[in-house]
Write a structure and sequence with these properties.
Length: 352
């Protein structure tokens, strides 16, 4: 609308300027010539006015149309250039080049918003592509070690180099269990992140969830030399949740905390009311997380220490599963840490 108004204003202004520039001169010249011609003053004035008006109107309209065409051409080229840049950038994204970005054309808020939305989409696609590549690389790495170990032991058994001793059977069981655990984790995170996840919602007391999770993790904490304690705020409201899914979230957080807390460490589970939410917190005195890693800890296969042994670091999917299940309940999950060696706290907020 602003562009159309600009074209109209330019045309009217051009017509007015041209008419003002040539109209009086033409009228004066006709009147001067009429003095030497027969006829009354009125007749001469009418003739001069009609002649001057016709010429002035023709020239003014021509100037107005020419100005409107010039202004329209300039605006159309700006709009066309913006759409051309968008088309070219979209073609690059379709070809797999997600690093392209659009500059704001500044020809209207709609075009600027479109450029911002495209840039946000390209950034998200670039991030997802990076995660996909890392996912494929990590899955390949996770599979390579147990498959190679099983293959080597099977070859050794066939060649008679290795006997089927309890130790050999234990190694084979451990590697197959590792493969099964990876497959189960991948299936769990895929199901948790899908829109078709089914929740068996029930009214459950938060204290019950904490007690069950702590009881399940007690033996692992004792083996790791970690003190496990629980704190429950009295008078908490019941929650409408899937107890199995929320138990899975707390179990993953407790496993993660126990795994990364050296002895003699401490892991604390607490639950309290926080406005319209109930907050479950799992806090440890373990290794801690650097600030630059905190935004990424819930991504699949993301590990803070890439040199850490995978058996110690886990599959890297537990926190991704936890985040997906919490979001499915309409809640949020956050990670907090003051830095390496200063422990970590995970907060899970579920709506009342």
């Amino acid at each position: 609308m602003v562009a159309i108004a600009l074209v109209l204003v330019a045309a009217v202004l051009a017509a007015w300027l041209v008419a003002g520039a040539i109209g009086p001169g033409l009228f004066h010249r006709h009147m001067a010539e009429a003095e030497k011609s027969p006829g009354t003053v009125v007749e001469h004035a009418e003739s001069a006015f009609a002649s001057a008006s016709a010429v002035t109107l023709a020239v003014a309209l021509f100037a107005a149309v020419l100005t409107a065409l010039v202004v329209s051409t300039v605006l159309a080229r700006r709009v066309g250039a913006s759409l051309g840049s968008l088309s070219s950038a979209a073609a690059n994204v379709a070809a797999g080049r997600f690093d392209v970005r659009l500059a704001q054309p500044h020809i209207g808020s709609e075009f600027d918003d479109l450029a911002d939305a495209f840039n946000a989409m390209a950034t998200r696609l670039d991030h997802d592509e990076m995660l996909r590549r890392r996912l494929m690389a990590d899955v390949a790495h996770e599979l390579r070690t147990p498959v190679a170990t099983i293959s080597a032991y099977v070859d050794a058994l066939e060649d008679g180099v290795e006997d089927l001793t309890p130790q050999t059977v234990g190694v084979l069981h451990a590697q197959t269990a590792r493969l099964a655990r990876l497959a189960a984790d991948l299936a769990a995170v895929t199901q948790a992140e899908s829109s078709g996840l089914r929740l068996d919602l029930q009214f459950v007391a938060p204290a019950r969830m904490v007690e069950a999770s702590v009881a399940a993790a007690r033996s692992r904490a004792d083996e790791a030399g970690v003190t496990l304690t629980a704190t429950v705020e009295p008078g908490l409201p019941v929650l409408r949740i899937d107890p199995d899914r929320v138990g899975q979230v707390l179990g993953n957080l407790l496993d993660n905390a126990i795994r990364h807390t050296p002895r003699p460490g401490r892991v604390t589970v607490s639950v309290r009311r926080l406005g319209s939410f109930v907050r479950f917190a799992v806090e440890d005195t373990g290794e801690g997380i650097s600030t630059e890693h905190l935004p990424h800890v819930f991504e699949r296969f993301y590990r803070v220490d890439t040199a850490r042994d995978r058996a110690h670091g886990g599959s890297g999917i537990g926190l991704a599963i936890a985040r997906a299940l919490v979001h499915a309940h309409g809640g949020t999950i956050f990670a907090h840490s003051a830095g390496p060696g200063l422990g970590t706290r995970f907060d899970v907020d579920l709506p009342v």
